[in-house]
Amino acid sequence: xxxxxxxxxxxxxxxxxxxxxxxxxxxxxxxxxxxxxxxxxxxxxxxxxxxxxxxxxxxxxxxxxxxxxxxxxxxxxxxxxxxxxxxxxxxxxxxxxxxxxxxxxxxxxxxxxxxxxxxxxxxxxxxxxxxxxxxxxxxxxxxxxxxxxxxxxxxxxxxxxxxxxxxxxxxxxxxxxxxxxxxxxxxxxxxxxxxxxxxxxxxxxxxxxxxxxxxxxxxxxxxxxxxxxxxxxxxxxxxxxxxxxxxxxxxxxxxxxxxxxxxxxxxxxxxxxxxxxxxxxxxxxxxxxxxxxxxxxxxxxxxxxxxxxxxxxxxxxxxxxxxxxxxxxxxxxxxxxxxxxxxxxxxxxxxxx
Length: 353
Description:
Blueprint: H1 7-12, H2 22-27, E1 57-58, E2 64-68, H3 103-115, E3 121-125, H4 134-145, E4 152-156, H5 159-162, H6 165-169, H7 171-186, E5 190-195, H8 205-216, E6 220-223, H9 237-247, E7 260-263, E8 268-271, E9 277-279, E10 284-288, E11 302-306, H10 321-339, H11 344-352
Parallel strand pairs: 2-3, 3-4, 4-5, 5-6
Antiparallel strand pairs: 1-2, 7-8, 9-10, 10-11
Helix pairs in contact: 4-7
């Protein structure tokens, strides 16, 4: 992944202890902390490109699409799942797929959405919608909201974390958002900002002022976070489940976050506890997505998550992809056999033991 960081983020770094600074860890890599990841993972880990009927549009869920407006951001997150497109080419990936903002490309996306009446939810992302000019933001949002079957738009942006002063100082951009919100409400539709704050150190007085300004204008703001562990940005399924258990019951249900795993190969976001099989020794977990089938595996609705190598048994940490595949196939066979003779709940207990 290419490196890019805003001066605002640099000002937030803990220069007295930069190696342990949670903001530095998200944006500035240190060579000594690099680890090998699971051999069955790949750059386009969510298999977005195979679910792209139009350049820059991902249509995986029946009623939702992801609109990729560009391939640039104010800062590049090291855990970005869209590294196949975002940022400059690198030595490892020297021919990235680029999404160039432009009316002709956008029009093809609008036409596709218009032709598919099952779509009601559009996530506008990129890249970063923060970098769209004010008039482009308004025209794009208005065009989508004018499609009868579109009920909601979510603008995905890390702006409140990496550059919150834009909300405070770029009045044209902010007013475009306000006018879109009014336009949506007049049609009994909705827009929202989906931001991406991962650590309390990212929340400054500027973040609060920007969030307050959005709130006072009746613009909803929701947040999603990545589970961060030291320098790496993946953790074991077991750890995520344990975190959820610790939080459950400690706060009101309305405040309780959803712990999900975004399944590789396009299985979608699934609750961490909804696995069908999980072997902590090999780190392989299996999920079923009844409404989604893998296009590269005929008639299969099985999807797999692989724990980081450091979290699995030492016996398997040096395995390559060819060595992992028989383990995966064996676990699938065991799952099929157990499902024929006992409940999925019992199967979960066996795999944990």
